[in-house]
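Q: Structure tokens for this one, please.
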Amino acid sequence: MGAIDQAMQSDHERLDRILAATAQAVEAGRWQEAREALAKFRHGIEEGHMVVEEQALFPAFEGREGGSEHPLTALLRKGHQDLRIFFAEMAEAIAAEDAEEFGDLYSTVQIILQQHDAKEESELYPFLAEALADHGAAVTEQMERAAREEPE
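A: Here is the predicted structure, written as tokens:
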């Protein structure tokens, strides 16, 4: 496993912990804490993780695998689009203080993320160190920078 695999998998785990903390806050009725945790999660995944994948990792993989219409990256991009919609709906449920709606969305998102992350970790990340000129050093730095910029 290379540095880029480890960095991306570690970020999956970090984001999963933040999302779980959001769900725990919702379950306890701590709505302000839930709003803050979800904002941190969304920033980390939408402004950090997904941006890195869409702007650096997917193109590098496609360059190595022969084109921008690769079925794997097309599927992963579609997954990102769908997840962004779910994240917005989760924010709406928290704003409405609707624990039941949030819980339903959270269950769905957990399943989608597990499948999405597993696909990235098994089919995409292992090939990136070779595909990236610097073996992922710049991307790893970008991920760390995005994590530091997350709201507290």
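A few notes: Helices lie at 3-27, 31-65, 71-95, 99-124, 128-131, 137-148. The longest helix spans residues 31-65.
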